[in-house]
Amino acid sequence: MSTDLEIKLLKETILALREELEKVRFEEREHIEQAIAGANDEIRQLRASVVDLRSELEQKEAQYDEQVRGMKLQHSREQTDLHKTIAALRQNLEELNESVEKIRRPSQTAASAPR
């Protein structure tokens, strides 16, 4: 009977160890699934951050491009205005030089005329 009792105790021990092993495996799977779920959540958050940052970068680039276009347009307008001013000043200078020449000519002819 002690052999039967020993067999019974060994079977109970085996059964308890199997249950404990299954429990450990279940807990291990649960931990792995939680880790995977956490990693997947982090991946989703990082992807969302990448999308947000990419969108923000595109907006900044568009703003920068718009500023550059505005500055180029302003530069072009200023350049045109300066060319007009130069042309007007040149015209005024030429007219002034012609007036001076007209004033000098009669006085030179009068000074060179015999008295």
Can you lay out the helices and strands and say which pair or pack?
Elements: H1 2-112
Total beta strands:
0
| Unreliable spans | none
Q: What's the overall average pLDDT, rounded?
A: 93
Shape: rod-shaped
- Distance from first to last alpha carbon: 169 Å
What is the compact description of this entry?
This protein has one helix and no strands.
Give an account of the 3D structure.
0% of the residues are buried. The chain is an all-alpha fold. 97% of the residues lie in helices and 0% in strands. It is built from 1 helix and no strands.
Key structural traits:
115 residues, mainly alpha
